[in-house]
Amino acid sequence: MGSWSLYFLVKLGLHVAGLIQLDVPLNLLFAVALAWPWAHPGWRRAWRFLAWPVAVALLYHDSFWPPATRILSQWQAISGFSFAYLVELVGRVINVQLLVAVAMGAALWWVLKQRLRLATWVFVGLVAVAALPSQHGGVTDLAQAATGADGTADRAADRATAPLLDAGQLDQALQAFYDTERGKILRLPKDGNVPGFDLLILNICSLSWDDLAFAGLRNAPFMRRLDVVFDRFNSAASYSGPAVMRLLHGTCGQPAQHELYGGAVADCYLFRNLEQAGYRPALLLNHDGRYDNFSTELRRDSGLGLVPEQRFDAAVAMSSFDGSPIRDDGETLTRWWSDRTAAASGVPLAMLYNSITLHDGNRVPGIQSLSSLETYAPRARKLMADLERFAALVEASGRPTVLVLVPEHGGAVRGDAQQIAGLRELPTPAITHVPAGVMLIGMGERRADGQEPVHVEQTSSYLSLFTVVAALMHGGPEVATPERLTEVAQALPPVEWVAENDKTIVLRRGPHTYVRDFEGRWRTLDSAP
Protein backbone atom coordinates (compact mmCIF):
# COMPACT_ATOMS: atom_id res chain seq x y z
CA MET A 1 0.00 0.00 0.00
CA GLY A 2 2.96 2.30 0.64
CA SER A 3 2.17 5.99 1.02
CA TRP A 4 -1.54 5.35 0.52
CA SER A 5 -1.66 4.31 4.18
CA LEU A 6 -1.45 8.02 5.02
CA TYR A 7 -4.70 8.61 3.08
CA PHE A 8 -6.58 6.03 5.15
CA LEU A 9 -5.05 7.01 8.48
CA VAL A 10 -6.03 10.64 7.93
CA LYS A 11 -9.57 9.56 7.03
CA LEU A 12 -9.76 7.40 10.13
CA GLY A 13 -8.77 10.42 12.21
CA LEU A 14 -11.40 12.59 10.51
CA HIS A 15 -14.00 9.91 11.14
CA VAL A 16 -13.14 9.69 14.85
CA ALA A 17 -13.34 13.49 15.05
CA GLY A 18 -16.83 13.38 13.51
CA LEU A 19 -15.79 15.32 10.41
CA ILE A 20 -16.64 12.53 7.95
CA GLN A 21 -18.62 9.28 8.02
CA LEU A 22 -16.58 6.39 6.62
CA ASP A 23 -18.29 4.01 4.22
CA VAL A 24 -16.34 1.02 5.54
CA PRO A 25 -17.12 -1.51 2.76
CA LEU A 26 -16.04 0.86 0.00
CA ASN A 27 -12.92 1.93 1.89
CA LEU A 28 -11.97 -1.68 2.58
CA LEU A 29 -12.44 -2.53 -1.07
CA PHE A 30 -10.24 0.40 -2.10
CA ALA A 31 -7.59 -0.54 0.49
CA VAL A 32 -7.51 -4.14 -0.74
CA ALA A 33 -7.14 -2.95 -4.33
CA LEU A 34 -4.23 -0.71 -3.32
CA ALA A 35 -2.51 -3.50 -1.36
CA TRP A 36 -3.11 -6.17 -4.03
CA PRO A 37 0.13 -7.48 -5.62
CA TRP A 38 -0.72 -6.78 -9.27
CA ALA A 39 1.37 -9.14 -11.38
CA HIS A 40 1.16 -7.40 -14.73
CA PRO A 41 3.20 -4.14 -14.94
CA GLY A 42 0.57 -2.54 -17.19
CA TRP A 43 -2.15 -3.18 -14.67
CA ARG A 44 -0.02 -1.65 -11.90
CA ARG A 45 0.57 1.51 -13.95
CA ALA A 46 -3.12 1.79 -14.87
CA TRP A 47 -4.19 1.36 -11.25
CA ARG A 48 -1.73 4.00 -10.02
CA PHE A 49 -3.31 6.41 -12.49
CA LEU A 50 -6.92 5.51 -11.59
CA ALA A 51 -6.34 5.45 -7.82
CA TRP A 52 -6.17 9.24 -7.50
CA PRO A 53 -9.63 10.10 -8.88
CA VAL A 54 -11.07 7.13 -6.97
CA ALA A 55 -9.50 8.43 -3.75
CA VAL A 56 -10.91 11.92 -4.29
CA ALA A 57 -14.38 10.59 -5.14
CA LEU A 58 -14.36 8.28 -2.11
CA LEU A 59 -13.33 11.11 0.22
CA TYR A 60 -16.17 13.26 -1.14
CA HIS A 61 -18.55 10.32 -0.71
CA ASP A 62 -17.51 9.96 2.94
CA SER A 63 -17.89 13.67 3.64
CA PHE A 64 -21.13 15.33 4.73
CA TRP A 65 -21.20 17.48 1.61
CA PRO A 66 -24.26 17.24 -0.64
CA PRO A 67 -23.96 14.91 -3.63
CA ALA A 68 -22.35 16.25 -6.78
CA THR A 69 -25.70 16.13 -8.57
CA ARG A 70 -27.06 18.66 -6.05
CA ILE A 71 -24.16 21.03 -6.68
CA LEU A 72 -24.60 20.72 -10.45
CA SER A 73 -28.33 21.42 -10.14
CA GLN A 74 -27.51 24.61 -8.22
CA TRP A 75 -24.68 25.68 -10.50
CA GLN A 76 -26.58 28.63 -11.95
CA ALA A 77 -27.13 30.04 -8.46
CA ILE A 78 -23.52 29.35 -7.43
CA SER A 79 -22.20 31.02 -10.56
CA GLY A 80 -23.92 34.23 -9.43
CA PHE A 81 -21.66 34.53 -6.38
CA SER A 82 -19.15 37.36 -6.42
CA PHE A 83 -15.46 36.47 -6.81
CA ALA A 84 -14.73 37.72 -3.27
CA TYR A 85 -17.39 35.42 -1.84
CA LEU A 86 -16.10 32.40 -3.78
CA VAL A 87 -12.59 33.05 -2.42
CA GLU A 88 -14.01 33.30 1.10
CA LEU A 89 -15.85 29.97 0.73
CA VAL A 90 -12.70 28.24 -0.50
CA GLY A 91 -10.90 29.58 2.56
CA ARG A 92 -13.51 28.01 4.84
CA VAL A 93 -13.06 24.59 3.25
CA ILE A 94 -9.27 24.72 3.10
CA ASN A 95 -8.31 26.47 6.32
CA VAL A 96 -5.01 26.84 8.13
CA GLN A 97 -5.99 24.48 10.95
CA LEU A 98 -6.78 21.67 8.50
CA LEU A 99 -3.51 22.16 6.62
CA VAL A 100 -1.53 22.13 9.87
CA ALA A 101 -3.30 18.94 10.99
CA VAL A 102 -2.53 17.22 7.67
CA ALA A 103 1.11 18.35 7.85
CA MET A 104 1.47 17.02 11.40
CA GLY A 105 -0.18 13.76 10.37
CA ALA A 106 2.21 13.42 7.43
CA ALA A 107 5.19 14.02 9.69
CA LEU A 108 3.96 11.42 12.16
CA TRP A 109 3.36 8.97 9.31
CA TRP A 110 6.91 9.53 8.04
CA VAL A 111 8.36 8.67 11.46
CA LEU A 112 6.15 5.64 12.09
CA LYS A 113 6.46 4.10 8.64
CA GLN A 114 10.12 3.36 9.37
CA ARG A 115 9.12 1.17 12.33
CA LEU A 116 5.61 -0.17 11.66
CA ARG A 117 3.67 -1.80 8.83
CA LEU A 118 1.10 0.96 8.60
CA ALA A 119 -0.97 -0.92 6.04
CA THR A 120 -1.78 -3.46 8.74
CA TRP A 121 -2.99 -0.69 11.03
CA VAL A 122 -5.16 0.69 8.22
CA PHE A 123 -7.03 -2.61 7.96
CA VAL A 124 -7.25 -2.90 11.74
CA GLY A 125 -8.71 0.61 11.92
CA LEU A 126 -11.28 0.02 9.19
CA VAL A 127 -12.41 -3.25 10.77
CA ALA A 128 -12.65 -1.53 14.16
CA VAL A 129 -14.83 1.23 12.71
CA ALA A 130 -17.11 -1.43 11.21
CA ALA A 131 -17.30 -3.40 14.46
CA LEU A 132 -17.77 -0.58 16.93
CA PRO A 133 -21.05 1.38 17.13
CA SER A 134 -20.92 4.91 15.76
CA GLN A 135 -20.39 7.52 18.45
CA HIS A 136 -21.29 10.53 16.39
CA GLY A 137 -24.55 10.67 14.48
CA GLY A 138 -24.25 14.44 14.67
CA VAL A 139 -22.17 17.14 16.29
CA THR A 140 -21.83 18.08 19.95
CA ASP A 141 -21.68 21.85 19.45
CA LEU A 142 -24.80 21.68 17.30
CA ALA A 143 -26.66 20.19 20.26
CA GLN A 144 -25.35 22.99 22.45
CA ALA A 145 -26.45 25.59 19.92
CA ALA A 146 -29.95 24.20 19.56
CA THR A 147 -30.68 23.42 23.22
CA GLY A 148 -28.87 26.42 24.63
CA ALA A 149 -30.76 28.92 22.51
CA ASP A 150 -33.82 29.00 24.75
CA GLY A 151 -32.47 27.42 27.91
CA THR A 152 -33.96 23.97 27.26
CA ALA A 153 -32.49 21.37 29.60
CA ASP A 154 -30.05 18.84 28.26
CA ARG A 155 -31.71 15.65 26.98
CA ALA A 156 -28.71 13.34 26.83
CA ALA A 157 -30.18 10.94 29.40
CA ASP A 158 -33.43 10.68 27.44
CA ARG A 159 -31.55 9.97 24.25
CA ALA A 160 -29.68 7.15 25.92
CA THR A 161 -32.89 5.35 26.88
CA ALA A 162 -35.37 6.20 24.11
CA PRO A 163 -35.51 3.69 21.26
CA LEU A 164 -34.46 4.82 17.80
CA LEU A 165 -37.03 4.55 15.03
CA ASP A 166 -36.11 2.64 11.88
CA ALA A 167 -36.36 4.04 8.34
CA GLY A 168 -39.82 2.63 7.72
CA GLN A 169 -41.21 4.11 10.92
CA LEU A 170 -39.69 7.50 10.11
CA ASP A 171 -41.15 7.51 6.58
CA GLN A 172 -44.57 6.72 8.05
CA ALA A 173 -44.21 9.43 10.70
CA LEU A 174 -43.25 12.00 8.06
CA GLN A 175 -46.21 11.11 5.84
CA ALA A 176 -48.57 11.23 8.83
CA PHE A 177 -47.24 14.70 9.68
CA TYR A 178 -47.93 16.03 6.18
CA ASP A 179 -51.39 14.43 6.12
CA THR A 180 -52.25 16.11 9.42
CA GLU A 181 -50.90 19.51 8.38
CA ARG A 182 -52.94 19.55 5.15
CA GLY A 183 -56.11 19.69 7.21
CA LYS A 184 -55.15 22.82 9.15
CA ILE A 185 -56.62 26.16 7.99
CA LEU A 186 -56.73 29.44 9.92
CA ARG A 187 -59.73 31.68 9.23
CA LEU A 188 -59.09 35.40 9.44
CA PRO A 189 -62.06 37.73 10.07
CA LYS A 190 -63.97 38.73 6.95
CA ASP A 191 -67.03 40.37 8.47
CA GLY A 192 -66.43 43.82 7.02
CA ASN A 193 -65.04 45.39 10.20
CA VAL A 194 -61.88 47.38 9.55
CA PRO A 195 -58.95 45.89 11.51
CA GLY A 196 -57.87 48.07 14.40
CA PHE A 197 -54.12 47.97 13.79
CA ASP A 198 -51.41 47.91 11.14
CA LEU A 199 -49.52 44.65 10.63
CA LEU A 200 -45.78 44.90 9.91
CA ILE A 201 -43.91 41.63 9.29
CA LEU A 202 -40.11 41.76 9.48
CA ASN A 203 -38.72 38.82 7.51
CA ILE A 204 -34.98 38.77 8.20
CA CYS A 205 -32.63 36.48 6.31
CA SER A 206 -29.90 34.59 8.22
CA LEU A 207 -30.92 35.10 11.85
CA SER A 208 -31.34 32.15 14.23
CA TRP A 209 -31.16 31.95 18.00
CA ASP A 210 -27.69 30.49 17.57
CA ASP A 211 -26.65 33.43 15.39
CA LEU A 212 -28.01 35.87 17.97
CA ALA A 213 -25.95 34.14 20.66
CA PHE A 214 -22.87 34.28 18.42
CA ALA A 215 -23.35 38.05 17.99
CA GLY A 216 -24.15 38.60 21.68
CA LEU A 217 -27.59 40.04 20.84
CA ARG A 218 -30.03 37.75 22.62
CA ASN A 219 -30.84 40.62 24.98
CA ALA A 220 -30.72 43.43 22.43
CA PRO A 221 -33.23 46.24 23.20
CA PHE A 222 -35.38 45.27 20.21
CA MET A 223 -35.57 41.66 21.37
CA ARG A 224 -36.50 42.78 24.90
CA ARG A 225 -39.43 44.79 23.50
CA LEU A 226 -41.18 41.72 22.08
CA ASP A 227 -44.44 41.02 23.92
CA VAL A 228 -44.82 37.42 22.72
CA VAL A 229 -41.74 35.24 22.13
CA PHE A 230 -41.90 31.88 20.38
CA ASP A 231 -39.14 29.98 22.15
CA ARG A 232 -39.19 27.00 19.78
CA PHE A 233 -40.27 28.42 16.44
CA ASN A 234 -39.26 26.31 13.45
CA SER A 235 -38.85 28.18 10.15
CA ALA A 236 -38.98 24.72 8.47
CA ALA A 237 -36.61 25.83 5.69
CA SER A 238 -32.94 26.69 5.38
CA TYR A 239 -33.08 28.77 2.17
CA SER A 240 -34.84 32.04 1.41
CA GLY A 241 -37.26 31.06 -1.35
CA PRO A 242 -38.98 28.18 0.48
CA ALA A 243 -38.86 30.08 3.80
CA VAL A 244 -40.71 33.10 2.39
CA MET A 245 -43.18 30.83 0.60
CA ARG A 246 -43.94 29.08 3.89
CA LEU A 247 -44.57 32.43 5.56
CA LEU A 248 -46.84 33.59 2.72
CA HIS A 249 -48.81 30.33 3.07
CA GLY A 250 -48.98 30.92 6.82
CA THR A 251 -52.75 30.49 7.26
CA CYS A 252 -52.45 26.77 6.55
CA GLY A 253 -50.46 23.92 8.02
CA GLN A 254 -46.95 22.96 6.91
CA PRO A 255 -46.90 21.21 3.52
CA ALA A 256 -44.04 19.41 1.80
CA GLN A 257 -41.74 21.90 0.08
CA HIS A 258 -42.76 20.98 -3.48
CA GLU A 259 -46.39 21.74 -2.63
CA LEU A 260 -45.54 25.42 -2.06
CA TYR A 261 -45.17 26.01 -5.78
CA GLY A 262 -47.55 25.86 -8.70
CA GLY A 263 -50.67 27.02 -6.87
CA ALA A 264 -52.16 26.42 -3.44
CA VAL A 265 -55.53 26.37 -1.69
CA ALA A 266 -56.92 29.92 -1.73
CA ASP A 267 -57.33 29.96 2.05
CA CYS A 268 -53.58 29.37 2.46
CA TYR A 269 -52.46 32.68 0.95
CA LEU A 270 -51.74 34.91 3.95
CA PHE A 271 -51.80 38.31 2.22
CA ARG A 272 -54.84 37.49 0.11
CA ASN A 273 -56.66 36.73 3.36
CA LEU A 274 -55.34 39.92 4.96
CA GLU A 275 -56.57 41.94 1.99
CA GLN A 276 -60.03 40.39 2.31
CA ALA A 277 -59.95 41.33 5.98
CA GLY A 278 -59.52 45.01 5.06
CA TYR A 279 -55.76 45.50 4.87
CA ARG A 280 -53.83 47.28 2.16
CA PRO A 281 -50.91 44.92 1.39
CA ALA A 282 -47.34 45.90 0.59
CA LEU A 283 -44.09 44.08 -0.07
CA LEU A 284 -40.81 45.89 0.63
CA LEU A 285 -37.24 44.70 0.00
CA ASN A 286 -33.84 46.18 0.87
CA HIS A 287 -32.35 44.41 -2.18
CA ASP A 288 -33.19 44.05 -5.87
CA GLY A 289 -34.67 40.55 -5.53
CA ARG A 290 -33.07 39.32 -8.75
CA TYR A 291 -30.84 36.59 -7.35
CA ASP A 292 -32.33 33.14 -7.94
CA ASN A 293 -35.47 34.87 -9.34
CA PHE A 294 -36.60 35.78 -5.82
CA SER A 295 -39.00 38.59 -6.87
CA THR A 296 -40.43 36.57 -9.75
CA GLU A 297 -41.08 33.65 -7.43
CA LEU A 298 -42.87 35.91 -4.97
CA ARG A 299 -45.21 37.29 -7.63
CA ARG A 300 -45.91 33.87 -9.13
CA ASP A 301 -46.42 31.63 -6.09
CA SER A 302 -47.24 33.80 -3.10
CA GLY A 303 -50.78 34.89 -3.95
CA LEU A 304 -49.60 38.43 -3.14
CA GLY A 305 -49.92 39.80 -6.66
CA LEU A 306 -47.64 42.77 -5.95
CA VAL A 307 -44.41 43.97 -7.48
CA PRO A 308 -41.89 44.19 -4.62
CA GLU A 309 -41.01 47.77 -3.67
CA GLN A 310 -37.52 49.15 -3.23
CA ARG A 311 -36.45 52.47 -1.72
CA PHE A 312 -33.85 53.78 -4.11
CA ASP A 313 -33.66 56.96 -1.99
CA ALA A 314 -32.21 54.90 0.90
CA ALA A 315 -28.43 54.74 1.18
CA VAL A 316 -26.55 51.65 -0.01
CA ALA A 317 -25.22 49.99 3.14
CA MET A 318 -23.24 47.12 1.58
CA SER A 319 -22.95 44.90 -1.48
CA SER A 320 -24.57 41.49 -1.59
CA PHE A 321 -22.89 38.11 -2.07
CA ASP A 322 -23.69 38.50 -5.78
CA GLY A 323 -22.38 42.06 -5.97
CA SER A 324 -25.79 43.80 -6.01
CA PRO A 325 -26.56 46.76 -3.67
CA ILE A 326 -28.24 46.31 -0.29
CA ARG A 327 -30.05 49.33 1.12
CA ASP A 328 -29.80 50.54 4.71
CA ASP A 329 -32.55 48.91 6.80
CA GLY A 330 -33.23 51.96 8.94
CA GLU A 331 -33.60 54.35 6.00
CA THR A 332 -35.61 51.87 3.92
CA LEU A 333 -38.17 51.27 6.66
CA THR A 334 -38.33 54.89 7.81
CA ARG A 335 -38.88 56.35 4.33
CA TRP A 336 -41.48 53.73 3.43
CA TRP A 337 -43.37 54.25 6.69
CA SER A 338 -43.43 58.01 6.35
CA ASP A 339 -44.78 57.88 2.79
CA ARG A 340 -47.33 55.14 3.41
CA THR A 341 -48.80 56.51 6.64
CA ALA A 342 -49.15 59.94 5.04
CA ALA A 343 -51.31 58.41 2.30
CA ALA A 344 -53.04 55.72 4.34
CA SER A 345 -56.31 57.64 4.96
CA GLY A 346 -57.26 55.36 7.81
CA VAL A 347 -56.79 52.13 5.86
CA PRO A 348 -54.74 49.63 7.89
CA LEU A 349 -51.46 48.49 6.34
CA ALA A 350 -50.14 44.94 6.06
CA MET A 351 -46.50 45.03 5.05
CA LEU A 352 -43.91 42.30 4.56
CA TYR A 353 -40.34 43.57 4.76
CA ASN A 354 -37.59 41.26 3.52
CA SER A 355 -34.01 42.09 4.47
CA ILE A 356 -30.81 40.29 3.42
CA THR A 357 -28.47 42.48 5.47
CA LEU A 358 -27.19 39.46 7.39
CA HIS A 359 -26.76 37.13 4.43
CA ASP A 360 -23.49 35.25 4.17
CA GLY A 361 -20.99 36.80 1.75
CA ASN A 362 -22.12 40.42 2.04
CA ARG A 363 -19.30 42.99 1.82
CA VAL A 364 -19.34 46.15 3.94
CA PRO A 365 -17.67 49.27 2.47
CA GLY A 366 -14.48 50.23 4.24
CA ILE A 367 -13.85 46.80 5.76
CA GLN A 368 -13.64 44.62 2.63
CA SER A 369 -10.55 42.93 4.06
CA LEU A 370 -12.75 41.19 6.64
CA SER A 371 -14.73 38.08 5.78
CA SER A 372 -18.51 38.14 6.01
CA LEU A 373 -18.25 35.89 9.08
CA GLU A 374 -16.16 38.56 10.81
CA THR A 375 -18.65 41.30 9.90
CA TYR A 376 -21.73 39.30 10.90
CA ALA A 377 -21.83 40.58 14.50
CA PRO A 378 -21.46 44.29 13.64
CA ARG A 379 -24.01 43.92 10.83
CA ALA A 380 -26.41 42.26 13.26
CA ARG A 381 -25.87 45.01 15.86
CA LYS A 382 -26.64 47.67 13.27
CA LEU A 383 -29.75 45.83 12.12
CA MET A 384 -31.08 45.43 15.66
CA ALA A 385 -30.48 49.13 16.33
CA ASP A 386 -32.31 50.03 13.10
CA LEU A 387 -35.28 47.85 14.02
CA GLU A 388 -35.42 49.39 17.50
CA ARG A 389 -35.43 52.91 16.04
CA PHE A 390 -38.13 51.89 13.58
CA ALA A 391 -40.30 50.52 16.39
CA ALA A 392 -39.88 53.83 18.23
CA LEU A 393 -40.90 55.72 15.06
CA VAL A 394 -44.03 53.60 14.70
CA GLU A 395 -44.88 54.19 18.34
CA ALA A 396 -44.44 57.94 17.94
CA SER A 397 -46.90 57.93 15.02
CA GLY A 398 -49.73 56.91 17.33
CA ARG A 399 -50.95 54.19 14.94
CA PRO A 400 -51.81 50.92 16.73
CA THR A 401 -49.49 48.34 15.23
CA VAL A 402 -48.66 44.66 15.55
CA LEU A 403 -45.04 44.16 14.58
CA VAL A 404 -44.04 40.57 13.82
CA LEU A 405 -40.45 39.32 13.74
CA VAL A 406 -40.09 36.09 11.78
CA PRO A 407 -36.66 35.37 10.27
CA GLU A 408 -36.37 33.23 7.14
CA HIS A 409 -33.72 30.93 8.58
CA GLY A 410 -30.40 31.11 10.38
CA GLY A 411 -27.08 32.00 8.83
CA ALA A 412 -25.16 28.96 10.14
CA VAL A 413 -22.49 31.42 11.27
CA ARG A 414 -20.76 28.93 13.54
CA GLY A 415 -21.00 25.98 11.16
CA ASP A 416 -20.53 22.47 12.52
CA ALA A 417 -18.71 19.23 11.79
CA GLN A 418 -21.06 18.41 8.92
CA GLN A 419 -21.39 21.80 7.27
CA ILE A 420 -18.92 24.65 6.96
CA ALA A 421 -20.07 28.03 8.21
CA GLY A 422 -22.67 29.48 5.87
CA LEU A 423 -23.64 26.15 4.29
CA ARG A 424 -27.33 25.32 4.86
CA GLU A 425 -27.97 22.20 2.83
CA LEU A 426 -28.96 20.31 5.99
CA PRO A 427 -31.85 22.20 7.63
CA THR A 428 -30.58 21.44 11.14
CA PRO A 429 -32.24 22.85 14.28
CA ALA A 430 -29.42 25.36 14.75
CA ILE A 431 -30.45 26.86 11.38
CA THR A 432 -34.26 26.63 11.44
CA HIS A 433 -34.69 27.46 15.14
CA VAL A 434 -35.32 31.20 14.72
CA PRO A 435 -36.37 34.01 17.12
CA ALA A 436 -39.97 34.72 16.12
CA GLY A 437 -42.05 37.12 18.17
CA VAL A 438 -44.82 39.71 18.29
CA MET A 439 -44.55 43.31 19.48
CA LEU A 440 -47.62 45.36 20.36
CA ILE A 441 -47.23 49.07 19.66
CA GLY A 442 -49.87 51.59 20.74
CA MET A 443 -52.21 48.81 21.87
CA GLY A 444 -52.92 49.22 25.54
CA GLU A 445 -50.32 50.05 28.15
CA ARG A 446 -46.76 49.36 27.06
CA ARG A 447 -45.13 46.48 28.91
CA ALA A 448 -42.52 47.59 31.42
CA ASP A 449 -38.90 46.97 30.43
CA GLY A 450 -38.35 44.56 33.30
CA GLN A 451 -41.58 42.63 32.76
CA GLU A 452 -41.27 39.22 31.11
CA PRO A 453 -42.97 38.73 27.73
CA VAL A 454 -45.44 35.93 27.10
CA HIS A 455 -43.49 32.82 26.09
CA VAL A 456 -44.81 30.19 23.69
CA GLU A 457 -42.79 27.24 24.94
CA GLN A 458 -44.01 24.46 22.64
CA THR A 459 -42.72 23.87 19.11
CA SER A 460 -44.41 26.43 16.85
CA SER A 461 -45.01 27.05 13.17
CA TYR A 462 -46.15 29.91 10.93
CA LEU A 463 -49.73 28.84 11.59
CA SER A 464 -49.07 29.19 15.34
CA LEU A 465 -47.67 32.68 14.83
CA PHE A 466 -50.60 33.92 12.76
CA THR A 467 -53.07 32.31 15.14
CA VAL A 468 -51.87 34.88 17.68
CA VAL A 469 -52.26 37.65 15.09
CA ALA A 470 -55.77 36.39 14.23
CA ALA A 471 -56.72 36.45 17.92
CA LEU A 472 -55.72 40.11 18.04
CA MET A 473 -57.73 40.80 14.87
CA HIS A 474 -60.81 39.13 16.36
CA GLY A 475 -60.49 40.47 19.91
CA GLY A 476 -58.74 43.80 19.46
CA PRO A 477 -57.29 45.61 22.49
CA GLU A 478 -59.00 43.20 24.88
CA VAL A 479 -56.63 40.46 23.74
CA ALA A 480 -53.60 42.77 23.93
CA THR A 481 -52.96 42.06 27.61
CA PRO A 482 -50.44 39.65 29.14
CA GLU A 483 -53.25 37.60 30.68
CA ARG A 484 -55.20 37.12 27.46
CA LEU A 485 -52.06 36.60 25.38
CA THR A 486 -50.99 33.92 27.83
CA GLU A 487 -54.33 32.18 27.33
CA VAL A 488 -53.90 32.33 23.55
CA ALA A 489 -50.33 31.02 23.79
CA GLN A 490 -51.29 28.13 26.05
CA ALA A 491 -54.10 27.13 23.70
CA LEU A 492 -51.76 26.77 20.72
CA PRO A 493 -51.38 23.08 19.86
CA PRO A 494 -47.79 21.80 19.66
CA VAL A 495 -46.40 21.01 16.22
CA GLU A 496 -43.91 18.34 15.31
CA TRP A 497 -40.48 19.59 14.27
CA VAL A 498 -40.00 18.96 10.54
CA ALA A 499 -37.65 21.04 8.39
CA GLU A 500 -36.95 20.56 4.72
CA ASN A 501 -34.55 21.59 1.98
CA ASP A 502 -35.26 20.00 -1.39
CA LYS A 503 -34.93 16.26 -0.65
CA THR A 504 -33.19 16.67 2.72
CA ILE A 505 -35.51 16.47 5.72
CA VAL A 506 -34.92 16.86 9.45
CA LEU A 507 -37.55 15.29 11.70
CA ARG A 508 -37.81 15.33 15.48
CA ARG A 509 -39.47 12.37 17.21
CA GLY A 510 -39.34 12.09 20.97
CA PRO A 511 -35.85 12.92 22.22
CA HIS A 512 -34.16 12.13 18.91
CA THR A 513 -33.50 14.21 15.80
CA TYR A 514 -33.22 12.44 12.47
CA VAL A 515 -32.07 13.58 9.04
CA ARG A 516 -32.98 12.03 5.69
CA ASP A 517 -30.33 12.74 3.07
CA PHE A 518 -30.57 13.19 -0.70
CA GLU A 519 -30.49 9.43 -1.23
CA GLY A 520 -33.39 8.89 1.17
CA ARG A 521 -31.25 7.39 3.98
CA TRP A 522 -32.08 8.28 7.58
CA ARG A 523 -29.53 8.87 10.34
CA THR A 524 -29.58 10.52 13.74
CA LEU A 525 -28.24 13.88 14.81
CA ASP A 526 -26.96 14.60 18.31
CA SER A 527 -29.13 17.68 18.56
CA ALA A 528 -32.55 18.73 19.68
CA PRO A 529 -34.53 21.92 18.96
From TrEMBL:
<keyword id="KW-0472">Membrane</keyword>
<keyword id="KW-1133">Transmembrane helix</keyword>
<feature type="transmembrane region" description="Helical">
    <location>
        <begin position="118"/>
        <end position="134"/>
    </location>
</feature>
<dbReference type="InterPro" id="IPR017850">
    <property type="entry name" value="Alkaline_phosphatase_core_sf"/>
</dbReference>
<dbReference type="Pfam" id="PF11658">
    <property type="entry name" value="CBP_BcsG"/>
</dbReference>
<dbReference type="InterPro" id="IPR017744">
    <property type="entry name" value="BcsG"/>
</dbReference>
<keyword id="KW-0812">Transmembrane</keyword>
<feature type="transmembrane region" description="Helical">
    <location>
        <begin position="83"/>
        <end position="111"/>
    </location>
</feature>
<feature type="transmembrane region" description="Helical">
    <location>
        <begin position="12"/>
        <end position="34"/>
    </location>
</feature>
<protein>
    <submittedName>
        <fullName>Cellulose synthase operon protein YhjU</fullName>
    </submittedName>
</protein>
